[in-house]
Design brief:
Elements: H1 5-22, H2 27-32, E1 39-44, H3 47-60, E2 64-72, E3 75-82, E4 91-99, E5 104-113, H4 126-137
Antiparallel strand pairs: 1-5, 2-3, 3-4, 4-5
Helix pairs in contact: 3-4
């Protein structure tokens, strides 16, 4: 290799690795996102029942619950993850369950690939989780 190319190659590798690290989604980053972000759907029922259905829906979607936080009496946040596989670096999914006074509960699903360039990841778990909640509430 020519000596004048070595510094260029080193800088290029550092920039590329920095971009990959920057593009990674983390559990902490999911917790810090605004609670009103993500795909939302409203369910009829009381908060504890819909929360229980949401937890089961996440598990039934093939995700492992990584963290759970009860923000207040009517808001809970679940962060779940799909591990790495031969085809994917994994994914993170946040589910926010918010009750209201009129016997309606909003569920928001926010999905991120662990690595932004991971094109083989499922990407959006909202339809699957919402369908699973519907089934659990019947």
């Amino acid at each position: 290799m020519r000596p004048f190319l070595q510094p260029f190659l080193c800088v290029s590798l550092l920039l590329a690795s920095g971009l990959l690290i920057y593009a990674c989604a983390t559990t902490g980053g999911m917790r810090q996102e605004a609670l009103d972000s993500g795909v939302v759907r409203e369910f009829a029922g009381d908060f504890p029942t819909v929360l229980k259905a949401a937890r089961a829906a996440v598990t039934n979607a093939g995700l492992a619950v990584d963290s759970y936080e009860q923000v207040n009496d009517s808001t809970a946040v679940l962060v779940a993850k799909k591990g790495t596989s031969a085809w994917s670096w994994g994914e993170l999914v946040r589910v926010v369950v918010q009750g209201s006074s009129n016997n309606k509960v909003s569920v928001r699903v926010l999905s991120h690939r662990k690595l932004a360039t991971n094109i083989t990841a499922k990407g959006d778990y909202s339809d699957t989780i919402f369908s699973n909640i519907d089934l659990a509430l019947k």
